[in-house]
Amino acid sequence: MPRTGGEMLAAARQLRDDPLLARLSPRAIRARMKPFWQAGWTNNDLRHALAHQPTPEPTPAGPTRPVERCPASQVRWPTAWLRHRLAPWTGPDGPLTAPHLDAERRAGLAARHGHAAAGRLPYGHTQLTVAALHADDQQRTQARATLVRNQARDRHALLTGLVPDHDVISVGARETAYAQITALLADRRSRRPSSTGTSC
User: Fold this and answer.
1) 45 CB contacts (<8 Å, ≥6 apart)?
2) What's the pLDDT tens digit per position in 183-197?
3) Predicted TM-score (pTM) above 0.70
């Protein structure tokens, strides 16, 4: 991430690969992005922020959600557009946690407590609270339905000897099975009586 004024100017030039930011000068981009770079953001974080918004509450979709973008030619004031896009990523104390840092912390939390727990945290949060772990009635119903479905599938697999859907078959075994099925079909086709020479 850029530190000096020169590095920030070079980083601003790199961001001009975005069609809309290409309409702004590198100095204008640097002036707007400087607080984010100082907070540890990278250019990839900024690109992500221009296409997404952080979710203030935990959602199944994840800590951020994609947002629609107008074609660059339809934006009349690029500076105002940039300010508007970065506003959700700014809190009372400045820029929020950089997206790459949030992803790293969330991955660490998932390793310790599971992906479901990590998914319950709003963007930028790192502490699991009792409220974050509380499951509502709909989530309990969905969990019960998933358990019943998995148990029924596993019971059916045991009774029939079929491989459950969640077991991954190896590439070699898949190719062998494909070859056997192909040979069986070819054998059955060769045994069919020919329809030529018959009369109605």
Assistant:
1) 36, 98, 99, 100
2) 888 887 887 765 554
3) no
